[in-house]
Design a protein that fits this description.
CATH superfamily of the domain at 7-35 and 96-202: P-loop containing nucleotide triphosphate hydrolases
CATH topology of the domain at 7-35 and 96-202: Rossmann fold
Strand content: 15-25%
Strand order of the largest sheet: 2-7-1-8-9
Helix content: 40-55%
Number of helices: 8
Bound molecules: adenosine-5'-diphosphate, guanosine-5'-monophosphate
Largest sheet: 5 strands, parallel
CATH class of the domain at 7-35 and 96-202: Alpha Beta
Number of strands: 9
Distance between the termini: 22 Å
Amino acid sequence: MGKQGILAVVSGFSGAGKGTLMKELLARYDNYALSVSATTRPPREGEQDGREYFFLSEEEFVQLIDTDQLLEHAIYVNHRYGTPRGYVTEQLQAGRDVILEIDIQGARRVKQQFPEALLLFVSAPSVEELKRRLAGRGSESGEVIQARLERAREEAKGMDGYDYLLINDDLDACVEEMHRIIQAQHARLSQNREFVEHIRKTLGI
Ligand code: ADP
Ligand code: 5GP
């Protein structure tokens, strides 16, 4: 059996640049599998069903919950979001490093089920810059931006549970740092159980 992949959870304030970072990471490196979440929020301009999200009705989403097809799910600013279970387990078993770009409620639930999961928190360099990026994206109303900033206050309280903080100032540098952190996890002892067992057996213990 080959080695399992790393499960990395990426969270952060809305507008911090998570989506942009993920796109860039996947464009540069081969071994990542980005989980596509299900959501009941309407698509933004340019978003495609099955690419950024699976855009579902409330009924379709509830059906996924009821049939236990979601690894975790949460409500974020009035809409539901959830991680399909099948893809994540398949890709991890195939040895690929799986990334979940999900909120802090989801991150907590994933960590309970996968204690080895790596939790990364992405922030903009300042609150002013965060506001600029949120407004600059131009995809949400002022009201939704306010709600998302309000949510950022909650998320700031939950940051302590994360393993690493990534400050997305220079995009290129941030992508490389994220890649280095995830790849370093492959050397963790807990990721190499089979090797450890083999060495012990060979040594007769
Ligand atoms: P999130 O997925 O965290 O909500 P996005 O990836 O949609 O954030 O990014 C929010 C906005 O900030 C977008 O307009 C994006 O182009 C911009 N952005 C992302 N990263 C950077 C960066 N390092 N420097 C400047 N602007 C950025
Ligand atoms: P957005 O609407 O900006 O795409 O995402 C809003 C928030 O929902 C972000 O914090 C994003 O990380 C989070 N999110 C996206 N997919 C999931 C998911 O499957 N589960 C959870 N818990 N949060 C998600």
